[in-house]
Amino acid sequence: MASLIKLLARKHFYPNLVKSGIPKVIANFSQNNFLILNYHGVIDKVDFNYSINHMDSEQFEHQIKFLSKNFNILPQEEFLFNYLNDKPSKKNRFS
Q1: CA-CA distances (angstroms) from residue 61 to 2, 54, 65, 67, 78?
Q2: Is 8 a domain residue?
Q3: Is residue 94 part of a domain?
Q4: What are the φ/ψ torsions at residue 51 (nearest 5 degrees)?
Q5: Mean predicted confidence (pLDDT) in 14-35
Q6: Mean pLDDT of all residues in the chain?
Q7: Domain boundaries, position 74
Q8: 91 lies in a domain?
Q9: Strand, helix or coil for residue 21
Q10: What's this model's pTM, rounded to 2 decimal places?
Q11: What's the mean pLDDT in 41-70?
Q12: Is the pLDDT of residue 93 over 60?
């Protein structure tokens, strides 16, 4: 049952949430606008017998294209340097 819920969330809920503009409103109220993502794994085809935490490569590619188009993506080292040295980040393009 959990695998079905995750599949529905990935395919329908989250894409519609982004289209609604709610994340944009939330980002505008954030002072830092940092978002850290962690992917558990990417596989060719979703197999919930393997893991319910992995996503298929097509969804992953779609997400990365969206993020690259709408956000300023930093390598971990650059983010940590900026954060520890209180350097302001470049404003993301989503807000």
Answers
A1: 23, 13, 6, 10, 23
A2: yes
A3: no
A4: -170, 135
A5: 73
A6: 77
A7: 2-84
A8: no
A9: coil
A10: 0.55
A11: 82
A12: no
C-beta of residue 48 within 8 angstroms of C-beta of residue 3: yes
> Which tokens hold the place of 25?
């409103």
State the residue for tokens 């017998």.
49
Rounded CA-CA distance 83/95 in Å is 20
In total, how many domains does the chain have?
Answer: 1
Closest CA to 72 of 93, 57, 52: 93
Mean pLDDT on 43-57: 79
pLDDT at 30: 63
Give residue 1's pLDDT. 66
Three-state DSSP state, 75: coil
Do the domain assignments include residue 93?
no
- pLDDT, tens digit, for every residue of 74-89? 888 888 888 888 887 6
In residues, how long is the chain?
95
Q: Rounded to the nearest 5°, which phi and psi values hold at 55?
A: -120, 160
What's the rounded Cα separation, in Å, for the pair 55 and 71?
Answer: 21
Written as six digits, the tokens of 22 are 């709610």
